[in-house]
Amino acid sequence: MIQHNNNKLDIYGMAASLICAVHCAAIPLFLTLGSAYMAEILHHPVFEVGFLLIAIVIAVWSLGKSYLYHHHNRKPLVLGIIGLAIVILGVVLHAWQITLPGGLILAYAHLINFRMLKNCACEVSNA
């Protein structure tokens, strides 16, 4: 079985998406606990846009490359696009309630892609 470098990208993508989801969930928690300063730091536009850019780069690279060169299955790609669109909408609207499910959908897309690459019998190495 071929070891794909995209597997590592999917792990990073899942981790980044889950960190994003935890980040979104932490904002109301900090507000509830009275730590408005910490919630404001987590909700800063630079922080959010940084997460968004990292998610876009990893998703395009990993999901796109896997679809084009390896398993050719649209499911992770479509889920990734949907997840990214929801995350982008949530960041633009500054609504963690929208961003959180988008991050989870994106993490799920990376998980599916990871599994497909793991079981891929393709002959193209990603080295």
Care to count the β-strands?
A: 0
Structural class: mainly alpha
- End-to-end Cα distance, whole Å, is 14 Å
Assembly classification: single chain
Largest sheet: none
Number of domains: 1
- Secondary-structure element order, N to C: HHHHH
Overall pLDDT confidence: 78
Low-confidence stretches: none
Q: Report the principal-axis shape.
A: elongated
Which strand-content bin applies to the residues?
A: under 5%
Radius of gyration: 16 Å
Q: Bin the helical content.
A: over 70%
Provide a count of the helices.
Answer: 5
Helix and strand layout, with pairings?
Layout: H1 6-33, H2 36-42, H3 45-69, H4 74-93, H5 96-118
Helix pairs in contact: 1-2, 1-3, 1-5, 3-4, 3-5, 4-5
Structure description:
The chain has 127 residues and is mainly alpha-helical. It has 5 helices and no strands. It has one domain (6-118). The protein is 81% helix and 0% strand. It starts with 5 loop residues before the first helix and ends in a 9-residue tail after the last helix. The model has no long low-confidence stretch (mean pLDDT 78).
